[in-house]
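pipeline: protein-struct stage 2 | run 1193 | Transcriptional regulator, DeoR family
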Amino acid sequence: MIGAERRERLLGRLEQHGVIRLEESAAELGVSTMTVRRDLEALEREGVVVRVRGGAVATVKARSFDERQGVDDAAKTEIARKALDLVPTSGTIAVDASSTSGHLLSQLRTVDDLVIATNSAHNHERARAVRGARAILLGGELEPRTDSFVGPIACAAAAMLNYDRFFTSASAADVEHGTSETIIDEAQVKRELVRASRETVLLINSAKLERRATAVAIAWAQISIVVTELDPADSRLDALRPLVELR
């Protein structure tokens, strides 16, 4: 297999899983890990990936809801399953515009008079499908790169309710700076939702850890629980262990 074909296969894995894992890719392609590492170096020079420990992840950039929805579906489904019991049956919650939060709403079947507020038309539609829920769309200016509502109107609407919990994902997260977003206005709406919430739950694919995006969003001190697709005892989460509860 020539280098161009290998790199095309690696990008296919990236599109499907959101991460390229060195050992798994080498076994699948029938080459050495050194060969895969050289391919990842080439892709990084092209600006397509960022190398991380044990592989590489996609360069952090804004993507539409539909584009994000199809990436690493298995991880998002597992995160949603683990977070499901954190959703109260009544009261008020906020949900961000992420596809991971969309998976959580899709798994939520029946509640007892739960208000669900979101700045995403996609997630508002999912919230409306939950039996016993009252769905509220936090309107504003539509951000076409992420399909979310942002801006001063969205921020004002977000601050008008008191939330028991805010369920959010992130473009990236690192130990030093907390979560970050590709869109500055998106980060601002999330900060308003954090301020209005008793607790914040971060739903995040492990491929997004040890990374940074453009706009600083939420500090670890403001996050109560982090839910990933990993076992909470996984060593990849060691840096977060002193900061938050892991699920």
